[in-house]
Design a protein that fits this description.
Chain lengths: ~400, ~400
């Protein structure tokens, strides 16, 4: 089957074939590259992201990003974080809270200042520079969470700090996005920003503090009373979507709501819910990972000026997070500080969303947009191998096997 | 929270909330009505379809059918049939083949003639009458399969005949659709139709006959060789989508490909794949069921002429399938013949698709379209309680519990 024939099928096959064909192309390419990378002792997650690059506009052109794939990707990262949440106890997160707060604050401040500074020195306008700084702020926790979960490392101290810091980082990132968006529109309403901050922090604190206790009371009753098949799973799904919706209204990302939904259920739902949720996660995560790669457009990086800027921004994005977050966790010793620093590097879909908003507000130009997307994809690609090195010796595949049924 | 406020949120909430909110509204309403119906000893599946009617344009107006929900619904019915396929052995289907062929042929001929006859007597044009006949032909196996699976009845003789007949019925239905579509366009190419028939039958026979044997050789090798986590599940998903794609190109529905993918894997994959696939199925099936209800538009049934025609068509759709399929299976005795007849009644999404094609070709008018949709939804709603009666005494909930993990 030649490539041209295949592209033709995708573009002009009968209507009924489009959905299964799109599912087949994305899922199969992600899983095949996953397998190939594992065979050469490279992280499979990198293979899945690169699958998106390969089938995407940059290389084969079989697939372009579209609304349906974007929705599957978003559901994928929601389930991924829900599944990770099921392995995390709220009390553990509260314990590491103070250090995580330092990690998050320094991990936001250093990248923002560095990103802004580089763009200013490069001669870009003030507001565009501020937007690039904002795009370098938010960590995409999905990638790190997937690596840590697959390697059975979620119970390590560094992993818990990464997860807690990612929640705080997300709140800070969305506040900064709200601030720079109002700057771009020319109207900064301090009262509104303060209200947003209060809502976001209030929602997160309430769920973390009282969610687990509440679910410990509710879930056993549900188990006794409901008659529908797999009622506990249905209830878990409803909580997942409900907290995702509430999170967005409270000014936090939907995936943080999904993570919190998993976490408050961690001590009350049984193995069956974990297995069923694992099925949905396994099915959807390739769409999230390949979806990141799909956005990369190498053609925008055709001139050397842009390539140089991209290299600078990428290096700044990596080192600023590593150093900022590492500094926040330095009290734990260099090994854990390095693990935390590396774990916070990926920007993934979050950086791209900020760049898209900047573009839609007319303050980010085409070449800077391509630079931010490259930064987002590349930070996501470098993190899994770095995590492998940083957590060397701690991996517990047998435990992961037990919990996630890998094998 | 008033209804208006809720509708407003759905229409104008922030962009990031739309996906989780749509998921929440559809999934939660389906599962809540499911639970309510089970509590009053009614089939939960009917509750889930009615949830779509309630949140849809006819009643609350919270949701309208859209591309994303349609895609989730199609994935849902694909996974449902894949999951059912995992419980069915190809050799069993081949054994019941001859009777199933009679069931399918008579179950196609009687509804077609009756549907066409009623519309002609009602004074509708020839081509519109033929289209309504065609819309009454194809059984939506998803509904019956879900009921039989949940009640642990898939191993009954009548269930196997229903599944085998549904596969043949689907091939016949798509051939008839191809024929009437070319009639509507004014060009009937006999050679092309014969080619379509050969391809469809050839594909199905090859997969049923050699698929299981091939997979018995391939799956153990995959188990030994692949390194990725949950590699067996990934391979099952790839086969699911690949056979769905091939099915469409061979002129069969994607869901039949999904069913065949499950069936050829039935004897080789382990429990883990069943559990993970069950997770995806549990997650997606509410979108399939509520999605059927979402299409019902009661406002088109505002005048008595249309309501009378709808009543006539509905009665004809029920009795013609019951009698046609029952006659095909009369050799098995009246009890099994009745079970088969009842199991083939639901038209669900298949009838609606035919009506939509008729509308897009300009041969089905608005009120006849509404009549066909009502027939599709109503046959789907009456089947589960009728199945309950027909299979009384055979239900094995404990077995279903074991296989599907219900409880």
């Amino acid at each position: 089957m030649t490539l041209d024939y295949f592209a033709l099928l995708l573009a002009s096959g009968p209507e009924a074939v489009k959905l299964p064909l799109a599912m087949l192309v994305v899922f199969a390419s992600a899983k095949i590259l996953d397998e190939l990378f594992e065979r050469f002792h490279q992280p499979g997650i990198v293979g899945q992201i690169l699958a998106g690059v390969v089938i995407g506009p940059s290389v084969l052109g079989w697939m372009a990003p579209n609304d349906f794939l974007a929705a599957l990707a978003e559901l994928g990262v929601m389930f991924l974080l829900f599944r990770v949440g099921l392995e995390v106890n709220a009390s553990d997160l509260i314990k590491v809270g103070p250090i995580a707060a330092w990690v998050a604050v320094l991990g936001v401040a250093v990248p923002f200042v560095l990103g802004w500074g580089i763009l200013r020195l490069w001669g870009e306008p003030q507001i565009e520079s501020i937007f690039v700084g904002a795009a370098m702020v938010a960590t995409s926790i999905g990638i790190t969470a997937q690596v840590l979960a697959a390697k059975g490392l979620l119970q390590e101290r560094a992993s818990k700090i990464i997860l807690a810091a990612a929640v705080i980082d997300d709140v800070l990132g969305l506040l900064i996005l709200a601030l720079v968006s109002s700057l771009a529109k020319g109207t900064v309403n301090v009262l509104e920003l303060a209200l947003t901050a209060t809502l976001a922090i209030g929602f997160t604190v309430i769920v973390v503090k009282w969610g687990t206790k509440t679910m410990k009371k509710v879930v056993p009753r549900v188990r006794e009373q409901l008659r529908g098949a797999e009622a506990q799973f249905a209830m878990a799904m409803i909580l997942l979507f409900a907290l995702s919706v509430l999170a967005v209204y409270a000014g936090v990302a939907a995936i943080i709501g999904a993570f919190l939904a998993g976490m408050v259920l961690a001590e009350s739902v049984g193995h069956r819910v974990q297995d069923l949720a694992q099925g949905v996660t396994e099915f959807l995560v390739p769409f999230f990972l390949a979806g990141i790669g799909l956005h990369l457009s190498l053609s925008a990086l055709s001139n050397w000026t842009t390539v140089t800027l991209a290299g600078l921004v990428l290096l700044a994005a990596m080192f600023s997070k590593f150093i900022g977050c590492g500094l926040g966790a330095y009290r734990l010793g260099w090994a854990d500080a390095a693990r935390v620093g590396v774990g916070m590097i990926p920007r993934g879909e979050v950086g791209m969303v900020v760049a898209q908003i900047g573009q839609s507000l007319g303050v980010i130009g085409e070449h800077v947009y391509a630079v931010v997307v490259l930064m987002s994809v590349a930070t996501t690609l470098v993190a899994p191998p770095l995590l492998k090195v940083a957590f060397r010796g701690l991996a517990k595949p047998s435990e992961a096997e037990e919990r996630f049924g890998i094998g």
